[in-house]
Design brief:
heterodimer; A: mainly alpha; 14 helices; 67% helix; flat; disordered N terminus; B: 635 residues; alpha+beta; 6-stranded mixed sheet; globular
């Protein structure tokens, strides 16, 4: 039987009233309800979720917005309308809310489309990373021995690879045949960037999960399952994986901003997504030579990139704290501590003979 | 200078076209000041964001900055330039070490130079006279394979040059030095450009080694790859510390010149051996030059130093848009900016061996469709340069009386040069496309699969992105979609210079003259026999033979050629030569149409307030250090 190793269920218990009253029925909360309750109280994390949801909506609606609200496509050029005589873009106005980029394109629309790129990477690259990381991390932690040695060493090697350089090499090599590498499987573009990011980042997940699996496999319920004749596969899928869900969710969320920034860096260097695909990193790169005379060109993509990565980071932190308050951020527990201390001071009944004591402990 | 392929889009070269010299409203061309007003003295402070990377070796260098230092200052050649712009004969040749222009035989196969006597090298060779044998020695070194001379191929027309290179002879049989001051050059074929070749640094006199008179390469013996550190000057200036060179020591023990510290500092001082009475070309007002290198430094930072008068000039020709804006708006700065037409062009090339570019009508449709006004705008505006309507820069199409032979030539004219972004331009493009085999329904929009996802290589430099987006828009208007890969300059270069890679469409290409002659464009880029397995510049494969096309794996083996048009111009000189190459350029533009040249760029330089007598040297396309002076003698 599977068992979730989690905090003991605590019901909300009504304090006992004056003598004689029977306490109310205790209703237990499931671990997920506890988790959600804690998460909800972390206002910053909730703000992050709201932002991400809004961003997803904007990204999905980018096409509609471009057509019906801004009336400019992402690749429509307005060279003579929105650049000056020396080719510098013009700033925000009534039709171009974020101003124009160097090709006279509507920056507002392009920033929205850039959200699509970042969110796509968030999903695909992270997804790939998780799949590979889970498979290898669980295998290493569960089987140990030679399997662990091999996987851990490969892990070390991959972690020490100069990823940016490799990414550049891959893109250069696969970018120049008409059909990419491996018979068209590896085409420069969003997918290649996802592969590069995912395939070079899996060791982070793998290492974390390996450690978790190693401690889990010593627990009694695993022994019990084995005693009942469960196969390795069943143990891994039914006993271990469900217990990894919490750390997996947390670390995935925390890795998303890293991946988004990685794509932005690749695109900044010109080795990320293809030129026609709007990407915040590429937009930053295009603005790099002119930001002193065209602040908007760098400001808007930079702001969105910042807010997006911050939102994911805050959500990830909030998730982690909600799953296990022992790892709660200092600020959270300090806030809670302050609140509790204030509550204690309010409720304290000062006994005459405790005045001296309260003065030193208050 | 630059037989050079800039694989980065233009951008920062912003200049107003210089119309006339002198008396212009500050900012154009050359403004020579009467010489009485100019004082000798001062050290010119120059900033640069990078060092030369071909070793400052006269046989290997081909970039502007090194050519500039050689011509103005370190090296004299048989013939040279006057350091002025094209309107003041800056593209004409004058005798420098020679007493006069060379005598040429009737059949144009024999050229004779007579040299000035009593000229000596810089210390420590101040007692070594400059002779015709030293010119011969320089050419021997040019022909020495281990040195890797960049321009060796031009000198193949000298009899015996290739045989010497191949090791089949121990001297260049076509060069004769009957006495110390005479050089006779025998050619394999008539070549009107021979005089230009003897103004190149690779022919600057190479001194013998007094301690080893039998050394074939003189003081360069044993310095095949590092001769730049042992250069002994023949011009008005020399590297600081030259006098400490010691050629009596074994090669590995010889000290290097201290004046050239790669990637840090260049210090150039006066050469005491230089006799100004023998040199009518160089004024040499300043006492010396220091060039401070900030590797990877941002040009903007260096330019700001010049504006603040902390430095005198930045070596590169680019200028950041924000700096240009400052000069446009601040009246105090107006006299400190100089803009001149350069000899760089920027173009796209279509590979004649790759569909759909094997169809002339499709190529001509593209010529109509490209919005050159838009390209110029996003490259920095009308100050960046002029819209190009043919291949070779107008500066080189200018006759001795100043007439531009190509004035008004615009076979692919569209309203305001907007290309397919204007209705008439689009109509012209479609009219051509409708005649193409790839437009099966003849509606002016390509519908064949060959027009979809055409592999295209362009620079990933941020400044190029806007131009690429515009091009894609123009191409889509006539039914061509590009599979654009934006890559680093070095990566693109390594791919496009090998014909076997069969790249259909190349953006971000540019050229610059080697010397003021259209031949230096046509030969490497439009001539069949110039096609190389690697290091090729003829990306279009113009004039390739069927054997060559098969060898590189092309399925199309029949491509247009203009070899005969180019060969017809080679023996000619002067205005006749220019007119001949103008006809060749027209043929290339209209009848082959595989190259879309969109801008002839200008050069821009800003200087500190103490720089006087700014002149623009058309040959090396920089401020002429040998002509300028510093206010008050630099005090």
């Amino acid at each position: 039987m599977s068992q979730l190793v989690s905090e003991p269920t605590t019901g909300s218990v009504e304090p006992a009233g004056p003598a004689g009253e029977i306490p109310q029925q205790v209703v237990g909360r499931s671990p997920w309800q506890i988790f959600w309750g804690r998460f909800r109280r972390d206002r910053v994390a909730v703000a992050g979720v709201v932002f991400i949801v809004l961003l997803i909506i904007l990204a999905l609606a980018a096409g509609w917005i471009a057509k019906h609200v801004a009336h400019h496509g992402p690749n429509q050029l307005f060279i003579f309308e929105m650049t000056d005589e020396i080719g510098l873009p013009k700033g925000p106005n009534a039709q171009f809310w974020f101003g124009a980029d160097r090709a006279g394109r509507d920056l507002f629309v392009r920033v929205l489309y850039g959200a699509r790129t970042s969110l796509t990477i968030a999903v695909f690259a992270t997804g790939l990373e998780i799949v590979v990381g889970v498979v290898l991390g669980v295998a290493a932690g569960f089987y140990r021995g030679k399997v662990d040695t091999v996987i851990s060493r490969v892990s070390d090697i991959v972690l020490s690879l100069p990823v940016l350089l490799l990414a550049m090499g891959l893109v250069s090599a696969c970018g120049l045949q008409a059909n990419g590498c491996l018979g068209g499987l590896v085409q420069p573009g969003l997918l290649l960037v996802s592969y590069v990011i995912g395939l070079f980042s899996w060791p982070y997940i793998a290492r974390i999960l390996r450690g978790q699996v190693m401690s889990l496999r010593e627990k009694e319920f695993i022994e019990a399952a084995r005693a009942m004749g469960a196969s390795n596969a069943r143990i891994m899928f039914r006993e271990i994986l469900p217990n990894l869900l919490a750390p997996l969710i947390v670390y995935s969320t925390l890795i998303i901003p890293t991946n988004i920034l990685f794509e932005a860096s690749l695109s900044f260097l010109g080795i990320g997504v293809p030129p026609s695909t709007p990407s915040w990193g590429a937009q930053l790169s295009e603005a790099s030579g002119i930001f002193d005379v065209a602040w908007w060109a760098m400001f808007w993509p930079g702001l969105f990139l910042l807010l997006t990565t911050m939102a994911f980071n805050l959500v990830g932190d909030g998730l982690r704290d909600a799953f296990d308050p022992r790892t709660a951020a200092v600020s959270y527990s300090r806030t809670r501590e302050k609140r509790e201390r204030r509550a204690r001071r309010r409720d304290r009944v000062r006994e005459p003979d405790q005045i001296g004591a309260s003065a030193t402990t208050g | 200078m630059k037989r050079h392929l800039t694989v980065i889009a233009a951008v920062a070269v912003l200049t107003l076209v210089a119309v006339a010299c002198g008396g212009n409203e500050g900012g154009g061309g050359t403004s020579p000041t009467p010489s009485q007003a100019l004082q000798k003295g001062g050290i010119l402070q120059v900033e640069s964001d990078g060092d030369v990377f071909l070793g400052f070796d006269p046989q290997t260098e081909y970039y502007q900055s090194s050519f500039q230092i050689f011509r103005c200052c370190l090296l004299r050649t048989l013939l040279s330039y006057n350091g002025l712009d094209a309107q003041h004969q800056g593209t004409q040749l004058f005798p420098d070490l020679a007493t006069a222009m060379p005598e040429v035989s009737e059949d144009q196969l024999t050229w004779t130079f007579h040299m000035k006597q009593g000229l000596y090298y810089a210390p420590p060779l101040q007692d070594v006279e400059i002779t015709s044998h030293d010119i011969m020695r320089a050419l021997i070194r040019t022909a020495t394979p281990a040195v890797g001379a960049s321009y060796g191929f031009y000198y193949s027309i000298i009899e015996g040059f290739d045989e010497y290179s191949a090791g089949k002879a121990d001297t260049i049989t076509g060069l004769e030095t009957p006495d110390d001051y005479t050089l006779i050059v025998h050619l394999n074929e008539p070549a009107g450009h021979l005089p230009f070749m003897f103004a190149m640094p690779t022919t600057a006199p190479l001194p013998p080694n007094p301690d080893d008179p039998r050394a074939v390469l003189g003081i360069a013996e044993g310095h095949d790859t590092d001769f730049g550190h042992y250069l002994v000057a023949s011009g008005p200036y020399m590297w600081e510390g030259t006098e400490n060179l010691d050629f009596s020591l074994p090669v590995k023990d010889q000290p290097q010149i201290t004046g050239w510290q790669p990637n840090k500092l260049w210090t150039i001082v006066r050469n005491p051996s230089w006799d100004p009475s023998t040199d009518e070309l160089r004024k040499a007002y300043i006492d010396g030059i220091t060039v401070t290198i900030t590797p990877g430094g941002a040009n903007q930072v260096l330019e700001k130093k010049v504006i603040a008068n902390e430095s005198d000039v930045v070596m590169e020709n680019g200028i950041a848009p924000s700096i240009l804006r400052q000069f446009n708006t601040d009246p105090a700065l107006k006299n400190r900016i100089f803009i001149n037409p350069g000899t760089s062009n920027y173009y796209y090339t279509m590979n004649l061996g790759m569909p759909p570019f094997d169809d002339l009508h499709l190529r001509r449709a593209i010529q109509f469709a490209v919005d050159k006004a838009g390209l110029l705008r996003v490259s920095g505006g009308t100050a960046t340069g002029t819209i190009a309507t043919h291949f070779v820069n107008d500066v080189l199409m200018t006759l001795s009386d100043g007439t531009n032979v190509m004035e008004g030539y615009d076979p692919y004219a569209t309203p305001d040069d907007l290309g397919a972004d204007s209705p008439e331009g689009l109509a012209s493009a479609k009219a051509e496309m409708a005649q193409s085999v790839y437009d099966t329904d003849q509606d002016g929009i390509c519908d064949a699969p060959e027009c979809k996802d055409v592999l295209t290589l362009g620079s990933n430099d941020p400044s190029a992105a806007a131009g690429h987006a515009l091009l894609q828009q123009n191409m889509e208007a006539i039914g061509i979609t590009l599979d654009l890969k934006e890559l680093g300059g070095a990566t693109i270069y390594s791919k496009i210079v090998a014909p076997a890679n069969k790249i259909p469409f190349t953006l971000s290409a540019g050229w610059m003259m080697d010397w003021p002659d259209a031949y230096t464009y046509m030969l490497p880029i439009a001539y069949g026999p110039s096609i190389l397995d690697n290091g090729n510049s003829n990306y279009s494969m113009i004039g390739a033979t069927p054997e060559q096309m098969k060898k590189y794996g092309y399925s199309i083996t029949d491509v247009p050629s203009m070899d005969d048009k180019i060969q017809a111009c080679v023996p000619l000189t002067g205005d006749e030569r220019i007119n001949c190459f103008a006809e060749a350029d027209k043929y290339l533009t209209e009848d082959i149409a595989s190259i879309v040249t969109y801008v002839f760029s200008n050069t821009i330089q800003i200087v500190s307030e103490r720089v006087q007598n700014f002149t623009y040297s058309a040959f090396d396309q920089q401020m002429a250090y040998d002509q300028i002076a510093l206010a008050g003698g630099g005090v």
